[in-house]
Amino acid sequence: MKLWIGIDDTDSPKGMCTTYLAVIAIEELQREGVEVIGFPRLIRLNPTIPFKTRGNGAVSFLIDTPDTELVMEVMDWVVQEYSELSHENTNPGVVFVKNDDEILNALSRFAFKAVRDLISIDEALFLIGRFMIPHLKYKKGRGLIGALASVGLESDDFTYELLAYRKPENFGKKREIVEETFFKADELFYPKIWDTVDWHNKVVVSVPNGLDPVLYGIRGSDFFSINRASEILETEEIHKKMLFITNQSTDMHLIPEEEAKELRNYHSYILSGIVVEEPEVIRGGHVFFRISTKFGMLKCAAFEPTKQFRDVVLKLIKGDVVRVFGSVKKDTLNLEKLEIVNLVRKKEVNPRCPVCGKRMESAGKNQPFRCKRCKTIAKEKEVEEIQRDVEEGFYEVPPCARRHLSKPLIRMDVPKKHVFR
Ligand code: ATP
Q: pTM (2 decimals)?
């Protein structure tokens, strides 16, 4: 029987990673003679969820087995053995879903909601009850939400990530890598791979810093290029590698304004607006400005980690028409991308005195402008060109600040792209 296994919430900031646990599970199942079909899927869910450890990822994979009970036993053993169960915020869940259209259709709707919205554990338990889905629930079992969603998510748009894992004796130690080889890989295989390094900010972004088992992750659209890139990387000894199909780099979390009824915290949007309050930098280097949208006034932010992207944002002035892409938290939209749709290039100013050349003053409402000194009069304001040091088009945060779900501009078929690499 074909069965989808979904798994989530096994790690903590102190260690582990659900993708690694899934790789171990796949190996253990194969050792028991279970057939694993195709690549596992790494599905990123709502990036604003407060319970997440890092990137709100969940994993699923398809197997063929005559023995669901054995499979459940193996998965239970793997979770008990490897997950961070002692951490208060780790609440694993595993689901075993028949490859059945009716169930998968219901899960597909649930999954889409899990990417864009908030879901309660009860909603997950309701689906589990309705379709009598065999499952394993540990502690609060919040992981059942991600587990179901990772099985159900459907999308025409997908990408790959090759994850390389460290030897267990190296977990927690500094990662040994030859940085230049990551830059070389990017030079050779970009744009079929992306977000490997950040040239401008001089950082390798494909290597995490935490206590988790991941050594690096190479993202891309073509697994031949991803594999070739990974072959030239010089690093500490690799324990395991696995290629995942993902919904990363797809913008799937962004709700277009036509589909939104209102703006809510913990949701992500694409919104049109007009700049009504010019950007200002606060201590720490964070930049804020306000736009008016069809839902009212909205504060937008380009935080310090978005680096040179802030320089673009700082060039906006009142009246500029923009489209903003990002997540709303604390009533502020955290920018991932920006489209400058129309720049203000003209402004009205008081006319100059034809005699002395100084700006004339307004003599009051419905009164002409006057030059006090020369006693000249003019009725109309003048229109002056504004020199803008920025152009219309799409701008994005650099790779070092990119969110897993954000679609890099190199993947977007839009004109006037300003790619930060
Ligand atoms: P890692 O990716 O490294 O495994 P993580 O960042 O994915 O860690 P988790 O430990 O999986 O974080 O915690 C996220 C929790 O939030 C999971 O229990 C998951 O089921 C739950 N969750 C995911 N999406 C939603 C959602 N839309 N609404 C409510 N809960 C969610």
A: 0.93
